[in-house]
Amino acid sequence: MTGESSNEIKHETTIFAEPIFHIGNFTITNALLNSWLSVIILVVFLMAVSKKINKVPRGIQNFFEMILEIGLKFADSITGNRKKSEKFLPICLTFFLFILVNNYLGLFPFVGSIGFIKSAYGERVFVPMFRGATADINTTLALAVMAIISSHVIGVKSIGGWKHINKFLNIKSILQISKRIKKDWTVILSAPINVFVGILEIIGEFSRIASLSFRLFGNIFAGEVLIVSITMLAAWAVPVPFMFLEIFVGLVQALVFSTLTMVFMAMNSQVHDH
Amino acid sequence: MEGQSMVALAKALTIAIGVIIPAFAIGKIGAKAMESIGRNPESAEKIQVPMIISAAMAEAIAIYVLIIALTIK
Asked: Could A255 and B71 be called an inter-chain contact, meaning their C-beta atoms sit closer than 8 Å?
């Protein structure tokens, strides 16, 4: 990029969210403001819906009962068990609604355009006040860590701590060498291999965190950059199909995140027997 | 070659080469889904959702490439 005069204001989409103000030592970024806004929207809306619950549903309660029915049927096709679905669905549906509202808030008119100008390093930069929360790697990383930790907690609650630990650090196979070696002497070779495979599974868990967070962040951030670039080229009517694409992508990414969380929970709550 | 042109070349080549195989994979997923819907039209709703999820997984690989291309400096 050629050098710009110091009187021009730079508009750039940065990968990291810009800080707006500080409370003590804690930085409030524009993505954090957006996620607070989406939490307020969700809480206010859902509390208003749940104020009056009738036995015979009508109107908006009907709509949400339909969503719940579809969600339970979908969860049944993954877990195969209605009781497990009722335990897993609250967390996964919360992830879905939170990510969906955040993705769509990034497309609203006031997000990314209202802001202030900051001078740094001799040039003036435009800093938007609001920015899509899922377009910030911190939000998606936090969501992915929460999803994996909750899948482990559900695994421990379902099958017990000893069996869950044995999926990763396969101590049980070492303890059973003395029992099984009389029947089958190759156990002394296969048990250390099982231990090593278990340790590799731990690395697999970290790769799950990375893939969940990067998939969501990359899709939404790339969508923002795409819309900014197309608007720079032709601002009249041409960005509309790209906005439609972003609506679709936001829905699909929220669905994929919550489906994968449910798949991990279902896998962790099963005992895999040889 | 100087720094800036090397950086630009690296960004362009990363994204250009990196999305070849994910694009091919998504096309293959879609093709197989179309084929099986054509053979059995009643199973369309059952195939739709897993197809979208598989396409999102394959697309995630291309997104990893995009992140690297965006952060090369």
From this structure: no
